[in-house]
């Protein structure tokens, strides 16, 4: 009995520590998954909020778009984005305005509130 008691305690503690380690690592993984989900939700929500802060008229003025095809709008966006790169002597502020304008028009197009086509 004296010899088996330490063995029982040793194995009991070993099993307990293994299960504790597994529980902690599972909890950390679940926490990381929840954090990633919150980050993804906040990221998509932040994009739509910043796009919604710009009016549709302002977005059209920034991209010089009134009635044009989506391809032409994309072409204008790419041109303005490239021209306003810091490496080209442009402004990060203007570059971000161009991005927000594109997001706003795309948001309106997805919601079916604006039709940016020839006509």
Features:
Helix Hairpins, 0% strand, 119 residues, mainly alpha, rod-shaped
Rg (C-alpha, Å): 28 Å
Count the DSSP helices: 4
Main sheet characteristics: none
Q: Report the sheet-strand fraction.
A: under 5%
How confident is the prediction overall: mean pLDDT?
A: 82
Low-confidence stretches: none
CATH fold assignment of the largest domain: Helix Hairpins
Which architecture of the largest domain per CATH? Answer: Orthogonal Bundle
What is the count of β-strands? 0
What does this structure look like?
- With 119 residues, the protein is mainly alpha-helical.
- The radius of gyration is 28 Å and the shape is rod-shaped.
- The protein folds into two domains: 1-53; 55-110, Helix Hairpins, CATH 1.10.287.110.
- Helices cover 76% and strands 0% of the residues.
- Keywords: Membrane, Mitochondrion, Mitochondrion inner membrane, Protein transport, Translocation, Transport.
């Amino acid at each position: 009995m004296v010899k088996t008691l330490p063995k029982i305690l040793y194995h009991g503690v070993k099993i307990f520590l293994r299960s504790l380690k597994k529980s902690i690592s599972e909890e950390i993984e679940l926490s990381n998954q929840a954090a990633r989900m919150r980050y993804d939700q906040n990221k998509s929500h932040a994009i739509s909020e910043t796009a919604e802060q710009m009016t549709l008229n302002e977005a059209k003025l920034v991209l010089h778009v009134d009635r044009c095809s989506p391809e032409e709008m994309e072409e204008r966006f790419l041109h303005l984005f490239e021209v306003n790169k810091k490496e080209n002597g442009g402004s990060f502020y203007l570059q971000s305005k161009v991005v927000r304008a594109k997001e706003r028009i795309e948001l309106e197009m997805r919601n079916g509130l604006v039709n940016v086509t020839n006509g």
